[in-house]
């Protein structure tokens, strides 16, 4: 079952909050935001490519920035505790 809002490629976030503690979702948001995107939805809308993920952790493996350079990420956690509160979590 998919959310109809997520199927709309032009959906804009209704609100934004900051992450309070690290989770797998926060880790992936950190990676998208480092590459210059709001979240996975914006990345798919702009790049229109499949997202490479690490099979064991499910974390994002590689992202293409808007200037066509690539960011490569490790299998393990990259978002340190001191960076968690900088991650923006959007609600649609």
UniProtKB/TrEMBL annotation:
**Could you state one GO cellular component term attached to this entry?**
nucleus
Q: What Pfam families does UniProt report for this protein, alphabetically?
A: Meiosis_expr
Q: Which InterPro entries match?
A: Meiosis-expressed_gene_1
**Function statement:** Essential for spermiogenesis.
In terms of PANTHER family, this protein maps to: MEIOSIS EXPRESSED GENE 1 PROTEIN HOMOLOG, MEIOSIS-EXPRESSED GENE 1 PROTEIN
Q: Could you say which protein family the record assigns here?
A: Belongs to the MEIG1 family.
Name recorded for this polypeptide:
Meiosis expressed gene 1 protein homolog
What is the organism field in this record? Phoxinus phoxinus
